[in-house]
Amino acid sequence: MAMTDDPYIPDLVTTGEAADIMGMTRQGVSAQVEAGTLPARRIGRYTLIRRSVAEAARTQADPSHE
């Protein structure tokens, strides 16, 4: 569910939510962020990832999700 319908504000998810989308563990997502293979931003104590990036990563890992 989108946090906002404003097209200028991206739909962001936490590493835990991204893990659910991508079918991975939170630690696996965090490892990809730390390695620089998954773009993310640290905001306060949260690491946030664009939902579209997480969905694209899932599709690349498992094309059957389309």
List the helices and strands and how they pair.
Layout: E1 12-14, H1 15-22, H2 26-35, E2 41-43, E3 46-50, H3 51-61
Antiparallel strand pairs: 1-3, 2-3
Helix pairs in contact: 1-2, 1-3
**Sequence stretches where pLDDT stays below 50 over 5 or more residues:** none
Secondary-structure element string: EHHEEH
Large-scale geometry: globular
- Summing up helix and strand content along with how strands pair, one would put the structural category as alpha+beta
Tally of strands:
3
Count of individual helical segments: 3
Distance between the termini: 18 Å
**Average pLDDT level:** 87
Beta fraction: 15-25%
Which percent range fits the helix content?
40-55%
Rg calculated over all Cα atoms:
12 Å
- How do the strands of the widest beta sheet line up side by side? 1-3-2
Major β-sheet profile: 3 strands, antiparallel
Note down, in words, how this protein is organized.
By secondary structure, the protein is of the alpha+beta class. It contains three helices and three strands. The protein has helices spanning 15-22, 26-35, 51-61; strands spanning 12-14, 41-43, 46-50. It has a three-stranded antiparallel β-sheet. A hairpin with a 2-residue loop joins strand 2 (41-43) and strand 3 (46-50). The longest helix has 11 residues, at 51-61. It is globular.
